[in-house]
Amino acid sequence: MATNSVRLDEELVQKASIIAKALNRTTPKQIEHWAKIGEMMEDNPDLPYEFVRQAIIAQAEREAGKLETYDFG
């Protein structure tokens, strides 16, 4: 993964640092998480935040091999 330096508002970085610590993430990973959510919300403006959050969780579960087949009916 390539990395780039980006200038960010200090207040944003401080807030990300606090939230990251609470959620056991690094500050850059917290900012990436927020960016991912923002991108998904902009691409799907009619979806509620909770649906987007659950989609991110489901994707992580799938990548970890933790999903089970659901049988309809």
Automatic annotation (TrEMBL):
The cross-references to InterPro entries, in alphabetical order and at most eight, read:
ParD-like
Write down the Pfam families for this protein, in alphabetical order: ParD_like
Instruction: Name it.
Output: ParD-like antitoxin of type II ParDE toxin-antitoxin system
Q: What is the originating organism of this protein?
A: Marinobacter persicus
